[in-house]
Specification:
The chain is α+β, with helices and mostly antiparallel strands. It has a single domain, classed as 3-Layer(aba) Sandwich (Trna Endonuclease, Chain: A, domain 1). Helices cover 22% and strands 33% of the residues. It has three helices and ten strands. Strands 1-2-3-8-9 form a five-stranded mixed sheet. The protein has a three-stranded antiparallel sheet with strand order 4-5-10, with no helix packed on it. The longest helix has 18 residues.
């Protein structure tokens, strides 16, 4: 699909639907001027969610990972402007059309450039800073949330 606006709208709709199916109330900002796309109620607090579309990537085109930008990128007067979401969103929720799943990561726990999620463990012993996609599905995030007290989850999201 070449239309990035349509692809972004599909990702937002899928993320919203999956949070609702998981039992989380979802709020949508009234104006389009927010640095987040929706808010999720968790433990009586609102977590700001920036929605991203994850695409396949990997070493030499292997497609072994899902990737998304952890920053906004826009062009103004011919200049590329990149801006971090730190302090302006709490969670990234990335929809991957390839896997048809939503992955949730805390904004403060990932690099400010690009995020890579491995679809399978690597064939090497170096697992330093490797993020497995399975560990970051919405289902895994919801399970961690329900297993923790609300204050632990919100603290981890930097909201307390």
């Amino acid at each position: 699909m070449a239309d990035t606006n349509a692809l972004g709208a599909i990702s937002e709709a899928m993320v919203l639907a999956e949070f609702l199916k998981a039992g989380f109330p979802v709020l949508i900002p009234f104006s389009g001027n927010s640095r987040y796309d929706l808010a999720v109620e968790a433990g009586g607090r609102l977590l700001r969610v920036q929605v991203k579309t994850a695409s396949r990537c990997g070493w030499k085109g292997s497609g072994a990972c899902l990737c998304f930008h952890a920053r906004s990128i826009r062009y103004q007067a011919g200049r590329r402007i990149e801006k971090s979401y730190r302090g302006q969103a709490d969670l990234f929720a990335a929809y991957a059309p390839h896997t048809r799943r939503v992955y949730v990561l805390e904004v403060d726990e990932v690099p400010e450039t690009d995020v890579r999620l491995r679809l399978a463990p690597g064939g090497h012993n170096n697992q330093h800073e490797v993020r497995l996609a399975e560990d970051h599905t919405l289902e895994a995030w919801a399970a961690r949330y329900s297993a923790s007290s609300p204050s632990e989850v919100l603290s981890a999201a930097g909201r307390l």
